[in-house]
Design goal:
Number of helices: 13
Distance between the termini: 47 Å
Bound molecules: adenosine monophosphate, glycine
Number of domains: 4
Strand content: 25-35%
Shape: globular
Helix content: 25-40%
CATH architecture of the largest domain: 2-Layer Sandwich
Largest sheet: 6 strands, antiparallel
Length: 421
């Protein structure tokens, strides 16, 4: 079988490495991939948003199955276009990917179907939003409606900051058209849990839970990033909470999407907050999380391609999805300055002894030399029986990766370890 994976980050590297365990796969193409995965896939210089190019490549190369991993191509309808030419895909169609593509859509969906989430108001103009903020409870949370590279959420601790956020989104258009509409919502508190799930639109199978670390610096300080590290399983996510989530969030969401005529197939990501009033949805993603995937797939025992194809074919109920016991950790190594300005182009040295534990996100090959080419450069992982041991091993692997200006958080998993005590 010939497979193509659309996307080029650490998540895609993890997906490709896991797919490679399937012996029926003869070749994997990464569109565009990155230089750091050149040993695992054939790199194809077609961007993840170039839907026409992706479809043409799929047809020309007789691709048997496509995995569309990032949000942009899913929201743009890559799956619909690939299916039109007869290529089966992992991922939702455009009308279901809107669950991530529009926060106004997802909030209204949750309200309509009684799925627990933060209270909210939607605004399509600055004046009404600013007026609402005169009396809104503070802190408050301002969210751009559309995709914004994971940066479209601002937590405002003061009324002034809230107003500035509205002006930056609706007047200055810092997120472009994504800020034409905004959601202003209740500030929630509690531990956060990421639950990725496989679904074929009928059955939903949650994967092992995980915890992201979004802030750039130790102690959850600094700017929000795409994610600086992950651990799995998330100790806050007990069996009891999992049962509540299945009943009040996971199944109701799948059913709601069906009722709306927007059947969701692929990976549905539930970003949850365990509030004093119970688990609530912070966000949905229509795809695998990054860097959650790097730890979750390490613990997946079943064959990934088989499970993915079951979501496409509607046979998930008859397919075994098994996870290993034990724990996994991922420490992201980034370029100094990320998520703001950073330099790249430095030689990246990954010791052979840890090469199979590293998922590369931002690198390119220049005359056969691997060089940094992004903010998040790579994720260094490991697994063990316990979280403590997995973290120790992952950090020890970090010391075997070298590039100029590297920085990483030293406290990935610290909160989780504390929670376990
Ligand atoms: P998102 O991009 O939607 O994942 O939001 C980024 C981060 O903002 C989340 O991981 C939360 O830490 C935080 N956040 C989003 N919505 C809320 C909320 N209603 N209350 C408190 N924190 C939130
Ligand atoms: N790590 C969060 C995300 O993928 O959106």
């Amino acid at each position: 079988m010939k497979i193509m994976v659309v996307g080029g980050g650490g998540r895609e590297h993890a997906i490709i490495k896991k797919l490679k365990e399937n012996k029926n796969i003869t070749e994997i193409f990464a569109l565009p991939g990155n230089g750091g995965m050149a040993n695992d896939a054939t790199l194809v210089n077609i961007g993840a948003k170039d839907i026409e190019g992706i479809v043409k490549f799929g047809v020309d190369n007789k691709i048997d199955y496509a995995v569309v991993a990032p949000d942009d191509p899913l929201v743009l309808g890559a799956v619909d276009e690939l299916e039109k030419v007869g290529i089966k895909c992992f991922g939702p169609q455009k009308n279901a990917a809107i669950i991530e593509g529009s926060k106004v859509f997802s909030k209204n969906l949750m309200k309509k179907y009684n799925i627990p989430t933060a209270e909210y108001e939607v605004f399509d103009n600055k004046e009404d939003a600013l007026k609402y903020l005169e009396t809104a409870p503070i802190p408050t949370v301002i969210k751009a409606d559309g995709l914004a590279l994971g940066k479209g959420v601002i937590i405002a601790e003061t009324r002034e900051a809230a107003k500035e956020a509205v002006i930056s989104m609706m007047e200055d258009k810092v997120f472009g058209d994504s800020g034409n509409n905004i959601v202003i919502e209740e500030f929630l508190t509690g531990p956060e849990v990421s639950v990725l799930s496989f679904t074929d639109g009928k059955t939903v199978v949650p994967m092992v839970s995980s915890m992201d670390h979004k802030r750039a610096l130790d102690g959850d300080l600094g700017l929000n990033t795409g994610g600086m590290g992950t651990i799995a399983p998330n100790p806050y996510y007990t069996d009891e909470i999992a049962e509540i989530c299945m009943k009040t969030i996971f199944l109701p969401t799948i059913n709601a999407m069906n009722s709306e005529g927007r059947t969701f197939k692929g990976c549905l990501y539930f970003g949850l907050m365990l509030t004093p009033k119970g688990p609530k949805v912070i966000e949905y993603n229509c795809r695998f999380g990054d860097p959650e995937t790097q730890v979750v797939l390490l613990l997946l025992e079943s064959d990934l391609l088989t499970v993915m194809m079951a979501t496409t074919n509607g046979t998930l109920a008859d397919t075994e999805v098994k996870f290993k016991n034990g724990a996994a950790a991922c420490v992201v190594m980034a370029s100094s300055g990320y998520p703001a300005k950073y330099e790249s182009g430095f030689e990246l040295k990954i010791d052979a002894s840890v090469a199979n534990k590293v998922y590369v996100a931002g690198a390119k090959l220049e005359n056969s030399i691997l060089k940094t080419a992004g903010g998040r450069v790579l994720g260094v992982t490991d697994t063990a029986d316990t979280l403590e041991e997995a973290l120790k091993k992952a950090y020890s692997n970090v010391s075997k990766v070298e590039f100029e200006n590297a920085f990483y958080r030293k406290d990935i998993g610290a909160k989780a370890l504390k929670a376990k005590e």
